[in-house]
Amino acid sequence: MRIGLIGTGRIGSFHAAALARHPDAGSLLLADADPGRAARLAERLGATAAPSVDQVFTWGVDAVVVSSATDAHAELVVRAVRGGLPVFCEKPLASDLARTLSVLREVEAAGGVLQLGFMRRFDAGYRTARELVRSGALGRLHTVRTMTADPQPPPAPYLATSGGLFRDCLVHDFDMVRWVTGREVAHVYAAGSDAGPPVFRETGDVDTAAAVLVLDDSTLVTCTGTRCNGAGYDVRMELAGELDQVSSGLDDRTPIASTEPHGPPPAAKPWTGFLERFAPAYEAELAAFVRLVRGEGPNPCDGREALAALRVAEACELSRRERRPVDLAELPGL
């Protein structure tokens, strides 16, 4: 098997290294808008560097991994499926809902294979939470709480094209709400604050946000996120039911301190970021893609699954801007 990987920045380099280690992934062809960056990574991994992205589609590969800048995702995915190539794409598929729907129609019309990169589906804690909910061990769920807190804001150029806190960051929480509970989001109400660093006001984004989601079985969900959590990277999900409650993401590296006299001590080495926290999950999702390409496993997150999470993010952004509750039925779908 030969896999073409497009985009050798931070996440692309991580994916390339994971594929280089995988016994069934075969050879790698790396490409980037900066050919020199692809060449340097290829030399480190013993892979082949293409002089441009075009060669990924003309030199003969069996599958494509898209980890380029967000604004290139849609075009590259469409190009792959039109060429009959299975494709893994980092989220988001496109910068907005309309373009996402357009790409997914292209994928389905071509009968293409598309896996989206929602790595938390492969995290051990979230998988256990899902099993407990689905088994009935927690009883009827009444409350779900999620949070994603970055230790510092990303660079201004990234923020300008990220799509905003709901689409870029909390979309992972929205995916987990659906995936863990097995329910759909019916209504949302969201708010955000740009009171932090000036870059958020300059880019029309918010540094902190909160959303209340009502699921289709009336379970209540709160999702909060921030780019300014100086204590460290903190991602958690709490699920409370009539019989029991559990928390994913709570361990000895969670950057939170108890004020109780006999509470647990502060984390000695808090998580620094998403690549460190979710490294095993990232590796597992690429392994799942290899199995998918080889015809040995199902698609763990297809385009329609990713669309469902994006529609929740879009509804939250609409709610924030217009300061009103939003029904998911207001948004278009496939």
Structure description:
The chain has 334 residues and is an alpha/beta fold. The protein folds into two domains: 2-120, NAD(P)-binding Rossmann-like Domain (Rossmann fold, 3-Layer(aba) Sandwich); 123-282 and 308-330, Dihydrodipicolinate Reductase, domain 2. Helices cover 40% and strands 21% of the residues. It is built from twelve helices and 13 strands. The protein has helices spanning 10-21, 35-45, 54-58, 70-82, 97-110, 124-135, 156-161, 165-181, 198-203, 274-277, 279-293, 303-322, and strands at 2-6, 27-31, 48-49, 63-66, 87-90, 114-117, 141-149, 185-193, 208-215, 220-226, 234-241, 245-248, 326-327. It has a seven-stranded mixed β-sheet with strand order 12-11-7-10-9-8-13. The protein has a six-stranded parallel β-sheet with strand order 3-2-1-4-5-6, sandwiched between helices. A hairpin with a 3-residue loop joins β11 and β12. It is globular.
Give the CATH H-level superfamily of the largest domain.
Dihydrodipicolinate Reductase, domain 2
Q: Write the H/E string, N to C.
A: EHEHEHEHEHEHEHHEHEEEEHHHE
- CATH architecture of the largest domain, by name, is 2-Layer Sandwich
Low-pLDDT windows of residues: none
Instruction: Based on Cα principal axes, name the global outline.
Output: globular
How much strand content do the residues show?
A: 15-25%
Oligomer: single chain
Number of domains: 2
Family: Belongs to the Gfo/Idh/MocA family.
Domain Gfo/Idh/MocA-like oxidoreductase N-terminal: 1-118
Domain GFO/IDH/MocA-like oxidoreductase: 126-242
GO molecular function: nucleotide binding; oxidoreductase activity
